[in-house]
Amino acid sequence: MTQGVSSAASDGYKRPEQVSLGNLTLTAHFIPGHTPGSMAWTWQSMRDGEKVDIAYVDSLTAPGYQLVDNPRYPHIVEAFTGTFKTVKQLPCDLLLTPHPGASGWDYTDVTQSTRMDCADYAKKAEKTLREQRKTQQAD
What we know:
The chain is α+β, with helices and mostly antiparallel strands. The chain has one domain: Ribonuclease Z/Hydroxyacylglutathione hydrolase-like (Metallo-beta-lactamase, Chain A, 4-Layer Sandwich). It has a five-stranded mixed sheet. The radius of gyration is 16 Å and the shape is globular. The termini are far apart.
């Protein structure tokens, strides 16, 4: 079991860490961007006798963030770039996010949900960030 996962994240630690809780092993992935300490968690479960890779991935957005010449977070774009690469590679049969709509879930009407995996989630966020950055560079 790993101690101090949150302090490792704030120090820019890059290698995934595992935490065991009984029979469950969670892997923490450090994905700075939305915040410098953002994290994703992956684990495995079983459904109908089949292994399912589950990923909880923090927000990949930068709402209202200064992406160009940000003195408080000067490497924000580089952080997001590394995060997108990490998230695209996560084992991900089932994606969970802090904002369900961001990952295609509609809890009010499950028939309206659109399946999205980690790679799709990262690609969508990457496109949005690129557009946001272009807008700021034009200003």
